[in-house]
Specification:
TIM Barrel; 473 residues; globular; alpha/beta; 15 helices; binds 6-O-phosphono-beta-D-glucopyranose; 17 strands
């Protein structure tokens, strides 16, 4: 049992923003960094969905001091960032790269000097290419490689980083790689691989959590999960069955290992219904039990609005839009399908804009699992046109995030165990599917002119919101 006191007891509410290594760092072949799977994949013209890559991205690698200044001047006291496994271990395993480690020393120290609490994710999609060559997440032995990598990170940064996550969105990561086919290795409707990846991801995550706890470091560790709220449409014939099925398919393979230290009890029944199976390790019960996390990092963008399966084959709806894609909607044979709710507004990429789900997601996790939660992503993507000086008046972002924050405040007042909230993203960066067109940042990055940073209207609005919240509570 992890006996170290919770770091949350010593922390104020965390108001911050989030970034991820591949999406903002650039410097893809500098400082001894090895090749990541995304570096490789984006260099293949016919695989690259948006025609751009992240070799330079927002150039956080060279400009992080300026970015951290803007985060601090924006009144934020937290930053969620990820480490690049390929920057730390260029070969995926073996010798660590001192230049990569010292880059992250500087970033972490830079955060602490500015009173920004770093929340560090070990891996946000950018798997080292040498590990992908060995089958990546399809190969159960990745858990050992991930554990070795995690130990190096804990040994180096564990004295200063108090909030850790193992993986970003293992569900969505696997979904995009194995069902929607938009992340490498671009398989479509492959339910076996979708679940096998999740099993291996959570085994790897459990391994890292167990190592962290053995080291008795003064912090907390968990996983980042996404979009956990499931709502069954009125008129559904078998609402309870549909709910259980959608919950299994989207949440339970992640949340049970992460928060209960076990696989979902309904696993075998669901595998049989799906007509598939998993390769499992003999000591899985011990491995998952030792890997129970301390808290949950949750990304909240949308709910899953589901109904009865209507005989469609397993599929994800992916539509190409100029230099990118929309990907809302799915069918999972023979379990359930998603529906478009015409009463809810949708964004340019077909995603629901429904702020009340912030409250509802938090209360749902509180009732079902009870763990402390940090909201590690919430945000609004849009196509933006700056004025002549480069300033963006992103009133739509302010309005939508403002409504999500109101919903968050309701959950806090009702006793949700939420400890922080981060906007995706601190600055404009690379979108996996939509390149540089879809913007989320509080700070504009001018990708055409020397990557100049200009805070948007939402940056100042968020700063003022944070200071009002501090005064109120
Ligand atoms: C989250 C990911 O799922 O969504 C981020 O953790 C991602 O990495 C963000 O960028 C927004 O996704 P998109 O596809 O709209 O850019």
């Amino acid at each position: 049992m992890h006996a170290v006191p919770s770091p949350f007891d010593e922390m104020p509410f965390l108001w911050g923003s989030a970034i991820a290594a591949y999406q903002c760092e650039g410097a893809w072949n500098e400082g001894g960094k090895g090749l990541s799977e995304w570096d490789y994949f984006n260099a293949i013209d016919w695989m690259n969905v948006n025609g751009v890559d992240a070799r330079v991205a927002s150039d956080f690698y060279h400009r992080f001091e300026e970015d951290l200044d803007l985060i601090a001047e924006g009144g934020q006291n937290a930053l969620r960032l990820s480490l690049s496994w390929s920057r730390i271990l260029p070969g995926g395993t073996g010798r660590a790269n001192e230049e990569g480690l010292s880059f992250y020393d500087r970033v972490i120290d830079g955060c602490l000097e500015r009173n920004i609490e770093p929340n560090v994710v070990l891996l946000h999609y950018d798997l080292p290419y040498p590990i992908a060559l060995k089958g990546g997440w399809g190969n159960t032995s990745i858990a050992d490689a991930f554990g070795d990598y995690a130990r190096i990170c804990f040994e180096r940064f564990g004295d200063r980083v108090r909030l850790w996550s193992t993986l970003d969105e293992p569900q969505f990561y696997s979904y995009n790689a194995n069902i929607a086919g938009v992340y490498p290795p671009c398989r479509k409707a492959d339910v076996h691989s979708y679940l096998q990846w999740q099993y291996n991801e959570m085994l790897a995550s459990a391994k890292a959590v167990a190592i962290y706890h053995e080291m008795n470091l003064p912090g907390a560790i968990g996983v980042v999960h996404n979009d956990s709220l499931i709502e069954v449409a009125t008129g559904t014939n078998n609402p309870a069955e549909v709910y259980t099925a959608a919950d299994f398919f989207n949440n339970r393979m992640i949340l049970c290992p992460a928060l209960e230290g076990r696989l979902p009890p309904e696993l075998d029944e669901m595998l049989e219904k799906l007509g598939t199976f998993l390769y499992r390790v003999p000591d899985e019960a011990e491995a998952f039990a030792a890997g129970k996390g301390d808290y949950l990092n949750l990304n909240v963008y949308a709910r899953r609005y589901v109904t009865d399966w209507n005989n469609s084959p397993t599929s994800a709806k992916v539509d190409s839009v100029g230099g990118g894609a929309t990907m809302e909607g799915q069918a999972v044979a023979p379990l359930y399908e998603t529906l478009v709710d015409p009463s809810v507004p949708h964004n340019q990429w077909g995603r629901e804009i429904l702020p009340r789900i912030m409250h509802d997601s938090l209360m749902d996790i509180k009732e079902r699992y009870g763990n402390p939660i940090v909201l590690t992503e919430n945000g609004h993507g849009s196509l933006e046109t700056p004025d002549d000086s480069g300033y963006v008046e992103d009133d739509d972002r302010i309005e939508i995030i403002g409504a999500f924050l109101k919903s968050l405040s309701e959950a806090r007042n009702e006793g949700s165990n939420v400890r922080g909230y981060y906007i995706w993203s601190a600055m404009d960066l690379y979108s996996w599917v939509n390149g540089y067109k879809k913007r989320y940042g509080l700070v504009r990055v001018d990708f055409d002119h020397d990557l100049i940073r200009i805070p948007k209207k939402s940056w100042a609005w968020y700063r003022d919101f944070i200071s009002r919240d501090a005064a109120r509570r």
